[in-house]
Amino acid sequence: MAVQSDMTMQELLMEFPGAQRALFRHYHIGGCQSCGFRPDETLAQVCERNGGLDPEQVLENVRLAWEEDKKLLVEPSDAAKTLAAGEADFIDIRTQEEFDAVHIPGSSKFTQETMQEVLGTAATGRQVILIDHQGSKVLDATTYFAGHGLTTVKGLRGGIDAWSLEVDSTLPRYTLE
Fold first, then answer.
1. What single string gives the DSSP state of each residue in 73-133?
2. N or C: which end of the chain has fewer CB within 10 A?
3. What kind and span of H or E run contains 155?
4. Rhodanese domain spans which residues (predicted)?
């Protein structure tokens, strides 16, 4: 998809999953109710009502942020090798209902206890791979841990959905409503 100022915010977020975080960090857009945006608004509309920002400059900042975000992600095929070798802990950040319905064998459900365990891995250097549904929330969780000094935490690019498509087709795919 060509990234342009007339794309909707929903399309922008699909192309750059960390765009909302980048918009908030650079322009205080999308982080709270007073500065939020609708999925059907275009980037140009959001830029105009937020002080006439230059959409091309905003897109450039989103692109640069995405380049940094990608460093926090691991490809499903690489994660599968890591899991098979026993070199990482897989932590699933989805809801309990989603986890109960389908999960990657060997993964653990994220809880307060596992959060403390993950924070404790900084000293051990053990790799942790976080899993969400489609990769839209894992960057926030990964960034949280990176902000606490963990360099061995990665997010699964595309979430369990990508895992099902690229690694293990026996895991059922699903949609949320």
1. EE-HHHHHHHHHTT-EEEEE-S-HHHHHH---TT-EE--HHHHHHHHHHHHHT-EEEEE-S
2. C
3. strand 153-156
4. 84-172
AA letter at 85: A
Q: What is the pLDDT of residues 95-154, one digit of tens each?
A: 999 999 999 999 999 999 888 887 777 667 788 999 999 988 899 899 888 888 888 899
- Domain identity same for 52 and 134: no
Rounded distance between C-alpha atoms, residue 91 and residue 114, angstroms: 8
Same domain, 129 and 60: no
Could you list the residue range(s) of the whole structural domain that residue 27 is in? 9-70
Distance from C-alpha of 48 to C-alpha of 73, rounded to nearest angstrom:
32
Q: What is the DSSP-derived secondary structure letter of residue 173?
A: P
